[in-house]
Automatic annotation (TrEMBL):
Record bears the keyword Repeat: yes
Compositional bias annotation for Polar residues: 679-693
Biased composition (Gly residues): 61-72
Entry protein name: MI domain-containing protein
GO biological process: negative regulation of DNA-templated transcription
Pfam family, one: MA3
Organism: Volvox carteri f. nagariensis
Length: 779
């Protein structure tokens, strides 16, 4: 479908993808799924071999030899075989036995003592190794490493010591480590740690609870949470509570009461699953980001520095503090009123040492290096960043940072000179070394300067992004694809066209179907004359790779991106093979794979071609089509009187800047009704540039027309009710209402010729009602 204006002559019932293309896509998706499952499968196989115990083939019995080693058909076994020799070590230990041998007795005592000593050494060595495994896990968070380490130890009968060490260590840490401990037990249960060893580990904790209380006073409450979390995770049976002896002391009694109360509570499972705080307490990257976002959002409302500092310490993520710095700076860029609280927060955390210099520099560098992308969404981001850095310098937030740690852009912003590692080359250093002219160059290329602070970005990329953003926003209003093509050609940056594709689709994601349809049509107009197919493929590859970030701003981004991707394939801008070729470059756990899968399903479905061609519901109508749709809605209102249907139609059109056409059509409906003439679908251009209904003969009327001798109230009252309702719902703004009335007033001579001299009286009556009821502003 190369011609955007070409009509589809006939439907295509067959799927758009051929059988070979669908088979290739399915195979690529299966390969990607196997990548995601490979690590999990490897960990499970290793965990299954971790116990090392001999298993019975029938999965029953202890796994030893049959019949005491004397098995065989038609035998009772060695224990009942007459004359069978005694097993090794099976000697009489009774002094009254005639076979009693004192030397054998002494030898057995020695062997027992040696065995006990060896067992003590084994337990001590196991405990020492387990301690290091637990400490390493709380740093790395790798469950597979723990499973592998326990497999190498091979002492599955001592696993209860690991359970006890894990829980006692977590009791003395924060909620993050406690959540990690609960997650680890759930992951290792039955595969690495046997159920009886897990129960034994918990019961040993119950026994030592009176001693634990001396070091951790809140141990009963915390241990009850561990117990209930294990019960909810199906790791422990509810009967584990019976192992707690309430007579052992007040701590055990408190523990048992807490566990029984939580077991009896209704709908307690959801609460228990979040007993350690839920999101942010685990090790997942998105959880940590969500916890920091929550912390920052609460601080920006309450402005409580002490509470923010306390929550940051409780998270226990010193290696991830750069995310807090980054989110705080971005919040200040988005809202200038947040500059002062953000600077105060960073000054408090940096001066107290809670956020290290390296984390502060890393967060600042992340914002400075991505400032060019921020300009696409917020053109004032460069200037605001410079002002924010100046305020932070005044508060001495960045005084202890080294230029080498923060990169070129951040170093230019803070110190006015590039980092030593980057200062010898690159466009950024060139801009900075030009003295007074450097600031101008930086600003023109997407940077900003304020108060002597210069934010430099690669001039070609920054200037191209800024020009692309301006062209796209103008295109959304003018719908002039030729103007966009001329601008792209004038920029002379074909290597940056993938950035234009990404910016166009990203802007359309957060808008309505009208803009999405416009972007789809724009790509048809630009490819391949202006944008090469390779650049288009590069732009969509970037979009798929950034799907996880886009979904944070646009929750429906996965579905919308799949529609965009399917649309460019249907429009023959990209080949169907692109879906298969792009998969290897995507993260197996990322949402980009889901976008490709969804697009493949739609392309392979019957009538998928028609659905994708109309995926935006014809949102980008021409102005003439918008005018005709508005007048059709007003004409239908004259018959049905359904205000809700008119409001729905205007909202779906998404042309709020052209809503004054509805006011003109409504007033002309009042003219028609007062003279007994019905509005018709036959249109003729009027003096005000809008389509005017052709007058009919006096005897022509329909069900919606008022009689010729009807009162003015009966004829124009419904129109006033419509305009009042639309204004109250926010569908029509005061500006659009005023513009529509003024359009009718300017073309009143033409209206009189069509509807008679009483049109002036009807218009004055409607205007007076609007002024009196407040939905029309005074001129």
């Amino acid at each position: 479908m190369r011609d955007e204006g070409a009509a589809i002559s006939s439907p295509k019932p067959a799927p758009f993808l051929t059988d070979e293309q669908r088979a290739a896509l399915d195979q690529a998706l299966r390969d990607k799924a196997q990548e995601q499952a490979k690590a999990r499968a490897a960990a499970n196989h290793k965990a299954a071999a971790a116990s090392g115990e001999r298993k019975s083939r029938s999965a029953k019995g202890p796994g030893g030899a049959k019949k005491g080693g004397g098995g065989g058909k038609y035998t009772w076994g060695s224990l009942l075989t007459t004359g069978a020799p005694a097993a090794k070590g099976d000697v009489a230990l009774d002094k009254g036995d005639p076979n009693y041998d004192s030397e054998e007795d002494e030898r057995d005592v020695v062997l027992l003592r040696n065995h006990q000593a060896a067992l003590r050494q084994e337990v001590a060595a196991y405990k020492e190794q387990v301690r290091s495994i637990v400490e390493e896990y709380f740093v790395s968070g790798s469950v597979s490493d723990v499973a592998e380490s326990l497999e190498e130890l091979g002492a599955s009968h001592l696993a209860h010591y690991f359970v006890k060490r894990l829980l006692t260590t977590a009791l003395d840490h924060k909620d993050r480590e406690r959540e990690m401990a609960s997650t680890l037990l759930s992951s290792l249960y039955a595969e690495v740690i046997a159920p009886d060893q897990l129960i034994k580990g918990f019961t040993s904790l119950f026994t030592s609870l009176p001693d634990l209380v001396l070091d951790v006073p809140e141990a009963p409450e915390l241990l009850s949470r561990f117990v209930m979390r294990a019960v909810v995770d199906d790791v422990l049976p509810p009967a584990i509570v019976s192992y707690v002896d309430p007579e052992s002391g007040p701590a055990c009694r408190d523990l048992r009461q807490r566990c029984e109360a939580q077991l009896a509570a209704r709908h307690n499972a959801e609460k228990v699953l979040r007993c350690w705080g839920g999101a942010g307490t685990g090790t997942h990257f998105t959880d940590s980001k969500a916890a920091i976002s929550s912390l920052l959002a609460e601080y920006l409302v309450a402005r409580d520095l002490g509470e923010a500092s306390r929550r940051l310490r409780e998270l226990g993520l010193p290696f991830f503090h750069h995310e807090l710095v980054k989110q705080a700076l971005v919040a200040a860029l988005d809202n200038p009123s947040h500059v002062d609280p953000v600077v105060a927060l960073l000054a408090r955390l940096s001066s107290s040492g809670e956020v290290s210099c390296s984390q502060l520099a890393k967060g600042l560098r992340r914002v400075a290096d991505n400032l060019a992308d921020a300009v696409l969404d917020n053109p004032a981001a460069g200037e605001r960043f410079a002002q924010l850095v100046a305020a932070a310098r005044t508060a001495k937030v960045f005084d202890d940072l080294e230029p080498e740690d923060m990169g070129t852009n951040a170093a230019l912003a803070v110190f006015g000179t590039p980092a030593a590692a980057d200062g010898a080359s690159g466009p950024s250093s060139t801009c900075a070394s030009n003295g007074g002219g450097g600031g101008a160059v930086a600003s023109s290329s997407g940077g900003a300067s304020a108060g002597g602070v210069v934010v430099a970005m690669p001039p070609g990329v920054a200037a191209f992004k800024a020009a692309s953003l301006a062209a796209l926003r103008e295109y959304f209003d003018s719908q002039d694809a030729e103007e966009v093509a001329a601008r792209l050609v004038a920029l002379e940056e074909p290597g940056l066209h993938p950035l234009f594709v990404k910016a166009a689709v990203s802007l359309a994601l957060d808008r309505k179907d009208r803009e999405r349809e416009l972007v789809s049509k724009l790509l048809v107009a630009l490819v391949p004359e202006v944008i090469s197919p390779e650049a288009l493929a590069g732009g969509f590859t970037r979009l798929l790779a950034a799907a996880d970030d886009l979904v944070l701003d646009v929750p429906d981004a996965v579905h919308l991106l799949s529609l965009f991707l399917g649309r460019v394939v249907v429009d023959e801008l990209l080949p169907p093979a692109f879906l298969t070729q792009v998969l290897p470059s995507l993260d197996a756990d990322g949402l980009g794979v889901a976008v490709v899968r969804s697009a493949g399903i739609m392309l392979a479905a019957r009538h998928g071609f028609e659905r994708l061609v109309n995926c935006w519901h014809g949102g980008a109508l021409e102005l003439g089509a918008v005018r005709q749709a508005i007048r059709a809605a007003i004409e239908e209102y004259g018959t049905s009187g359904d205000v809700a249907e008119v409001a729905r139609c205007l909202r779906e059109l998404g042309a709020s800047s052209f809503s004054h056409e509805a006011v003109v059509a409504a007033v002309e409906l009042a003219f028609s009704r007062y003279h007994g003439k019905a509005t018709t679908t036959t249109q003729a251009p009027g003096a005000n540039g809008s389509a005017q209904p052709q007058p009919k003969e006096e005897h022509e009327s329909d069900a919606g027309a008022a009689p010729s001798d009807g009162s003015l109230e009966a004829a124009a009252g419904p129109v006033v009710e419509l305009l009042t309702a639309l204004a109250g719902q926010g569908v029509l703004s005061a500006t659009q209402l005023t513009t529509g009335i003024e359009r009718v007033r300017a073309a009143l001579s033409e209206e009189v010729m069509d509807y008679g001299p009483s049109s002036q009286q009807v218009l004055n009556w409607i205007t007076e009602r609007g002024l009196r009821e407040g939905w029309l502003a005074a001129a």
